[in-house]
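Page 37, continued from 36.
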């Protein structure tokens, strides 16, 4: 056995080393009168401690549904998880007994909902609602819960927390209500926070303040952050890695810098090009024509092919890589980058 060489400095802890959450080949469908809606079709990703992963995609691409599956709050029926696993610190939530799940969801993984601003109860004070987290999960007394609520209001930088703890939601601005929601979400010191479009309803200055707050809280606690958004600017500013979703699948994944500087999927390329303020190679403009698919009738082959400027059909396509019949798997294209396009190498080189 070799003894450790104590003259060497200890290796720096890797803040993005251990996966705290792993989603593996998740499938979610809705059985509706209009048919089966395939909302999530084999989504996989992992999130490390301290990492910020952005999930980016147009409306209706399955971002919220995949988050709801993690939180166990799918509207089911009609929703059904038809496959996959959701691992928190290595344990699959989907096969865990319900009482165990309850110990993870809330305390371990918490979420700020897309419609958060309207989900505060108008008849209870904000302090009571924040304190409820402690009473419900830890059996804390009312008085102590209120004290915790004041501390949390301070942490999310609500001015005059002590004086405002008994105020009602309507007495707060949109930005301050969002801070209340963030306070509730971090109350139990989760290891993973999922923020679903946390700034969409806010004006631009307030958006920036809320994102700063989330980043600061993450720095303090080391929690992993999943940021669901359709805002490229937000992704660029705060995320380490990005997963681009289309039609219930991840179509590209990598570091934000890599993906933004040189997309490997035509859909990502289209997203970048549709937003003038994002620096983009060459400044080409390839607006994405058409609409995202109806998830009850996803096109065969590559789900993006009807909108794709680079699609190759029978005549000039390579065997097994015909865009309207062969589904491109998410694959490693270059180190650190995955994309689900038959022709990613060409897209990258363009
Ligand atoms: N309660 C529901 N019943 C039926 N279909 C639903 C329901 N909720 C979501 N869906 C379907 O799932 C798809 C993905 O929704 P969602 O994850 O909310 O998209 P987004 O990426 O905008 O967050 C939607 O296009 C919708 O068709
Ligand atoms: Mg959504």
């Amino acid at each position: 056995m070799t003894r450790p060489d104590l003259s060497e400095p200890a290796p720096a802890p890797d803040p993005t080393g251990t996966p705290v959450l792993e989603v593996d080949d998740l499938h979610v469908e809705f059985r509706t009168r209009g048919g089966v809606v395939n909302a999530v079709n084999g989504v996989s990703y992992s999130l490390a401690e301290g990492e910020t992963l952005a999930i980016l995609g147009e409306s209706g691409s399955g971002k919220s549904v995949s988050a709801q599956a993690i939180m166990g709050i799918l509207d089911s029926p009609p929703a059904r998880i038809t496959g996959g696993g959701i691992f928190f610190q290595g344990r699959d939530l989907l096969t865990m007994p319900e009482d165990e799940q309850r110990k993870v969801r809330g305390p371990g993984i918490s979420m700020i909902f897309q419609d958060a601003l309207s989900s505060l109860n108008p008849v209870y004070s904000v302090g009571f609602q924040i304190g409820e987290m402690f009473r419900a999960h830890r059996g804390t007394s009312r008085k102590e819960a209120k004290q915790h609520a004041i501390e949390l209001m301070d942490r999310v930088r609500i001015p005059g927390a002590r004086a405002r703890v008994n105020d009602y939601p309507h007495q707060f601005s949109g930005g301050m209500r969002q801070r209340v929601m963030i306070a509730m979400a971090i109350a139990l010191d989760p290891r993973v926070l999922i923020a679903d479009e946390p700034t969409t309803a806010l004006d631009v200055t307030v958006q920036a303040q809320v994102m700063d707050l989330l980043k600061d809280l993450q720095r303090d606690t080391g929690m992993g952050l999943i940021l669901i958004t359709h805002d490229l600017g937000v992704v660029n500013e705060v995320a380490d890695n990005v997963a681009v979703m289309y039609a219930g699948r991840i179509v590209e994944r990598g570091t934000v810098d890599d993906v933004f500087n040189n997309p490997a999927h035509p859909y990502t390329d289209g997203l970048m090009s549709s937003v003038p303020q994002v620096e983009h190679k060459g400044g080409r403009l390839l607006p994405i024509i058409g609409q995202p698919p109806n998830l009850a009738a996803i096109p065969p082959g590559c789900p993006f092919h009807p909108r794709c400027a680079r699609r190759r059909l029978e005549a000039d396509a390579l065997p097994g890589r015909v865009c309207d019949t062969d589904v491109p798997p998410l694959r490693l294209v270059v180190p650190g980058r995955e994309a689900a396009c038959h022709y990613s190498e060409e897209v990258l080189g363009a």
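DSSP finds eleven helices and twelve strands in the chain. Flag for discussion at group meeting. Residues 1-16, 277-286 have pLDDT under 50 and may be disordered.
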